[in-house]
Amino acid sequence: MNETFITLSINKFLSENNYEVIQCIPPGGQGGIYYSLKNNIIYPDIICLKDKILYIGENKTLFNESDEKKLIELSNEESLFEKSQKIVDNFLKSKNKPHEKINDIKFFLGFSSSSKKQSNVHINILVENNGKVLLKN
Predict the structure, then answer these.
(1) pLDDT reported for residue 136
(2) SS3 state of residue 92
(3) Which of 7, 74, 79, 96 is the most buried (most CB within 10 A)?
C-alpha cells in the first residue's frame, strides 16, 4: 500500500459520503490551494467540506508525526478561519453554488490501518488493504 492508494481511497470515500472535495493532491501532484504560516507554506493533501465544516487532511502510508505537528501548527494560525472561508467562497463560486459560512474546521491524518501509531489530536482516517476507509476519532 502506498500514499497514492491511501489518498485516492480517502478521496473516493469522501465523494461517496457527500463531502465536497475542494482539493485532493496525490503524491507528486501540484497543489493550488495553500496556507502560509510564519516560515512555512502548507499545501494540504485533501481539503473538503460537509455540513458547514471544513476538513483539512494530510496522508502518508503510516502515521506521521511531522504531519501531525504541521496540522497542529496550522490549527493555531490566527487567520485560519478567514483564509479557509475565502477558499470555500472561491470553490462554491466556481461551482455556481450559494455562499456558505463555515462553522468549524477539523483536521485529519490519513494512513494505513496497519499503522501501529495513531493521532490523539486529530481525526484518524484509516485505509485497509482493500481500500475500505475507517474513521477513528
Answers:
(1) 86
(2) helix
(3) 7
